[in-house]
Design brief:
The chain is of the alpha/beta class and 439 residues long. The protein has three domains: 32-234, Alpha-Beta Complex (2-enoyl-CoA Hydratase, Chain A, domain 1); 245-370; 378-433, Nucleic acid-binding proteins (OB fold (Dihydrolipoamide Acetyltransferase, E2P), Beta Barrel), CATH 2.40.50.140. Helix content is 51%, strand content 18%. It has 15 helices and 16 strands. The protein has helices at 2-24, 26-31, 46-61, 78-90, 109-116, 143-161, 166-177, 184-189, 200-207, 235-243, 246-265, 271-290, 294-312, 318-334, 344-370, and strands at residues 34-41, 66-72, 95-99, 105-107, 119-122, 127-129, 181-183, 195-196, 211-214, 217-220, 227-230, 384-387, 394-399, 402-408, 418-425, 428-433. Strands 8-5-3-2-1-11 form a six-stranded parallel sheet. Strands 12-13-14-16-15 form a five-stranded mixed β-barrel. It has a three-stranded mixed sheet with strand order 4-6-7. α3 (46-61) packs parallel to α4 and α11 (246-265) packs parallel to α13 (294-312).
Length: 439
Amino acid sequence: MQGHHRRILIWHTLLVLAASLLLASPLKAQNGTVVDVLTFEGAITPIVASYIERGIDTAETDGATCLIIELDTPGGSVQVTEEIIKEMKAATVPIVVYVSPQGGKAASAGTFLTLAAHLAAMAPNTRIGAAHPVDMSGEAMSETMEAKVVNDSVALLKGLAEPRGAEAAAWAEAAVRESSSITQDEALELSVIDFVAQDLTALLGALDGQEVLIRDETHTLETAGATINRIPMSAVEGFLHTLTDPNIAFLLMTLGLNAIILELSQPGGYLAGIVGAICLVLALFSLGVLSVDWTGLIFVVLGFVLLLADVKAPTHGILAGLGVVSFVLGSMILFSSPFAPVSKSLVVGVGLATGIFFAFVIAKVFGAQRRRPTTGAEGLVGQLAVARSNLDPTGTVFLKGELWQAMAGEGTVKEGEEVEVSDVDGFKLRVKRVARGSD
């Protein structure tokens, strides 16, 4: 009987587990109505490309009815954007780009991603366009090079827009050549996008029943009441994406250089050097992704070299002042790319803070140089001792718990009298009687 009851219990447990699994994903199991959603804000960087590629792979693996990419971007690297477009065009899952939230934009490279999607939508009070290419370093391109880049960008964007109609293709060319930018309603009127949706729920309602063609095969979207599966950036992707914020990169670079210089000026602690090295490594990653203006970076480094020179060879603040000016000037042009603006108030504030920090360091160095030594032979000069024998002129004195051979500088010192060390000659002290005022 016990074996019979045990079998009944096992079968009951298996049935409960099976029912739980079925109830946990009823929509996906029955009709596949799961929608994967990616969300990112900021410049289009290699980290974003990796995130979108992972999202596409996930959507294809879990059988999502479509992948929605919510974006709000000022643009980014053309090369990275082209890599993302290739991934989107090779995908076997319908991809929808949704420009959101309200007040967001799909500028420059974001325009390319929006038109590369199978379907596109925008939230109210959003905008798209301004796709004229610029040098990511912020430097002006030659006339010939600019013409080549513009024509190539026009060909790519027009090719993406042509399936949407002649008006969309004509606007796509204007977006590149004339930096044309339009609102969500204008984009809908020109067929640049397919929907204007208040929020994600409204977008799912609008997408339901839409047909898209992928590799000559028609896919019908079933999004009404679909389960939304948000795919956030991983911890590593989120961390690296945060580092591509130019303000964060600027702070890391400044902290790193300050810490390294502090370690060089006051060696021995190692902590400042280690922290500075870590900050500089992270800053170099950010600078590499952001493609900064190297002229600005040279000015920043020169500024810190001048500050360090003032610490090592004090010039009463002249080199330090020039260093701060060089640092601020370099920082102003370091992130000159329109996709990586840095706060001017932050630059000025950090420049002033750096100047104050080095004024403190220089003051400490001056103080250390003027302070009387307290160790070694020089540290004995000025110390008080007690004669343990008559000094006529030589004898012994008691100093800091030890007996020393000593020589009186003038006259005879009697045993028990207090003397002051005036000089050190090897292991013998030169002393003088301590003058006492009359009572």
